[in-house]
Design goal:
single chain, about 80 residues, mainly alpha, rod-shaped
Length: about 80
């Protein structure tokens, strides 16, 4: 009976370790996604600033469009994960 109890405790400890590990992995994945989204938000802010500057000038709209397209592709990539 004592050995059965020890085995059960050991199994519970093992399961608790696995659950902790899964939780840590989930947190790490979320942190990575948040960092990626923050980077994309920064890029969007930069594109917005450029758009405001370019709005008053009729030059280099192709550069701004490429930047926006790049940000959109990055956002699409993060959303797929």
């Amino acid at each position: 009976m004592y050995r059965d109890a020890e085995a059960l405790v050991s199994r519970f400890n093992s399961l608790a370790d696995q659950i902790d590990s899964l939780g840590e992995q989930a947190v790490s994945a979320m942190e990575a996604d948040i960092e990626a989204l923050n980077g994309l938000a920064s890029q969007i802010a930069s594109v917005n600033r450029n758009l405001l500057k370019k709005k008053t000038r009729a030059e280099s709209t192709a550069t701004v469009a490429r930047s926006a397209r790049s940000v959109a592709e990055g956002l699409e990539s993060v959303c797929r994960n």
